[in-house]
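W.,

You were right to be curious about this one. When I first looked at the sequence I had no strong expectations either way, so I just let the prediction run and decided to look at it fresh. Below is the sequence, 81 residues in total, followed by the output.
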Amino acid sequence: MQAFEMMAKVDQNGQLLLDQPLEIRSESRVKVILLVSDEEEVDPDDTPVEEIKASLRRALQEAKEGKRIPLEQMWDGIDAE
């Protein structure tokens, strides 16, 4: 058995709507385990892969164009928790 973790929404009819399509053989039977948050929380680790790739592409392009931040300024404004 394989395991997949992804985000989804429940619509007004109680239907589960996945954020992305499953890449499995169609018409497969699946077992679904739902973890429902008590609050509207966003896990920073749930950033979509495409969004991360786009950010890395922008950073690489900016570096190629010489748009760099001096190392001593990189941590400005970032709070340590």
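Here's what jumped out at me. The beta strands are 8-10, 16-18. And, maybe more interesting for your project: The longest strand covers residues 8-10.

Coffee later to discuss?

I.
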